[in-house]
From TrEMBL:
Native organism: Thalassolituus hydrocarboniclasticus
Role summary: Catalyzes the NADPH-dependent reduction of N-acetyl-5-glutamyl phosphate to yield N-acetyl-L-glutamate 5-semialdehyde.
Similarity remark: Belongs to the NAGSA dehydrogenase family. Type 1 subfamily.
E.C. designation(s): 1.2.1.38
Keywords for this protein: Amino-acid biosynthesis, Arginine biosynthesis, Cytoplasm, NADP, Oxidoreductase
EC class (word): oxidoreductase
Protein name: N-acetyl-gamma-glutamyl-phosphate reductase
Catalytic activity annotation: N-acetyl-L-glutamate 5-semialdehyde + phosphate + NADP(+) = N-acetyl-L-glutamyl 5-phosphate + NADPH + H(+)
Length: 343
């Protein structure tokens, strides 16, 4: 059994990790931390876990965490910077759900996150945990940066086009919608029912911190600079990301449907839907699947890719567990066979 610790158990990604891991056949949950809820039984805070775990929250302690085989960080940005190196030194591996190790350029990270990068020394060993791109490196990794939610849906949607060099120089567009759980469990006015329901709005149009992360992944895939406009929107749903991606590809001869199907044929968590489909966020709610549909308007040369995920599963905790499975040589879908909830 893999001994698992979680730092930050009271946020949405922390409890989502628990929901997945309590049913994982190869995992023994050892530690779950919260400084504010020290001593509280986890199931008292999250009744969905009653009968599934007897764990209590405890304060983060490197020695205890170091007795685990792997430690997940489900914490705000900056926390993994301060603790990851010490935990790696105990021999445990680290899977970080925050953005602390996602950007390879520490200066760029400091610019977007507005704080000093606290772990430049271990940054070079971090592997970007997008299995569909980096599976071989993930296998050998000791420190994983789990991709952000928007970056997962946008990169998976654009990858086949970029890897095959099918897009001429142009401004690509990612028009993305997120559910409110993406903003986390912490109280904020924008997440109140009266503010977020029956309404929809764009935000961070000037520049969102996921832009450099998405661009970094897209440029690796394309092998050249990529221009991207990324506009996130908050929508009145709890879970889900819907990305509508636009690219101009005039005179395209390729059969895009066949290209996408071939690219993801062996990917357990990417489902390319039949031509003409319109995937709904509901079709992935609670599951680790990214559903993609590709459309091409031959008369205008416009390619439109639709990509949906559950922000808390393929966009965070599910993808984190997928990384763990790969790192420890387990079945990649172990603990991740949940079918989406309908309706
Ligand atoms: N919500 C989403 O859809 C997604 C979120 N993420 C990322 O995952 C991470 C977790 O997000 P979310 O689940 O929303 O939770 P929060 O960001 O609200 O983090 C909450 C957890 O972190 C703990 N924590 C906070 N500060 C510290 C600290 N200094 N040391 C140790 N523990 C600390 C808190 O417990 P306590 O203070 O009691 O110790 C709490 O359990 C974030 O980086 C977020 O950006 C990634 C993808 C998607
Ligand atoms: C709706 C909403 O507020 N979404 C968050 C992104 C989700 C998230 O937590 O992003 P990370 O994966 O980088 O941690 C935001 O825009 O900041």
């Amino acid at each position: 059994m893999i001994k698992v610790g979680i730092v930050g158990g009271t946020g949405y990604t922390g409890v989502e990790l628990l929901r997945i891991l309590v049913n994982h056949p190869d995992v023994e949950l050892k530690v779950i931390t919260s400084r504010s809820e020290d001593g509280l039984p986890v199931a008292d805070m999250f009744p969905n876990l009653r009968g599934h775990t007897d764990l209590r929250f405890s304060v983060p302690d490197v020695q205890t965490l170091g007795e685990c085989d792997v430690v997940f960080f489900a914490t705000p940005h900056g926390v993994a910077h301060s603790l990851a190196e010490e935990i790696l030194n105990t021999g445990a591996r680290v899977i970080d759900l925050s953005a602390d190790f996602r950007l390879q350029d520490a200066v760029e990270w400091e610019k977007w996150y507005g704080q000093p990068h606290g772990a430049k020394g271990i940054l070079p060993q971090a592997v970007y945990g997008l299995p569909e791109v980096n599976r071989a490196q993930i296998k050998e990794a000791r420190l994983i940066a789990v991709p952000g939610c928007y970056p997962t849906s946008v990169q998976l949607g654009f990858l086949p086009l970029l890897e095959n060099n099918l897009l001429p120089e142009q401004m690509l567009i990612a028009d993305c919608k997120s559910g409110v759980s993406g903003a986390g469990r912490g109280a904020s006015v924008g997440s109140l029912l009266c503010e977020a329901s029956e309404s929809m709005m764009a935000y961070a149009v000037k520049g969102h911190r996921h832009l450099p992360e998405i661009r970094q992944g897209m440029e690796r895939a394309a092998g050249k600079a990529v221009n991207l406009t990324f506009v996130p929107h908050l929508t009145p749903m709890i879970r889900g990301i819907h990305s509508t991606l636009y690219a101009q590809a005039p005179g395209l001869a390729e059969d895009l449907q066949a290209l996408y199907e071939a690219r993801y044929a062996n990917e357990p968590f990417v489902d390319v839907m039949p031509a003409g489909s319109h995937p709904a966020t509901r079709s992935v709610k609670g599951s680790n699947v990214c559903r993609i549909a590709v459309h091409h308007h031959a008369h205008t040369g416009q390619v439109i890719v639709l990509s949906v995920i559950d922000n808390l599963v393929k966009g965070a905790s599910g993808q984190a567990v997928q990384n763990m499975n790969i790192m420890f040589g387990l079945a990649e879908d172990a603990g991740l066979k949940q079918v989406a909830l309908l309706p």
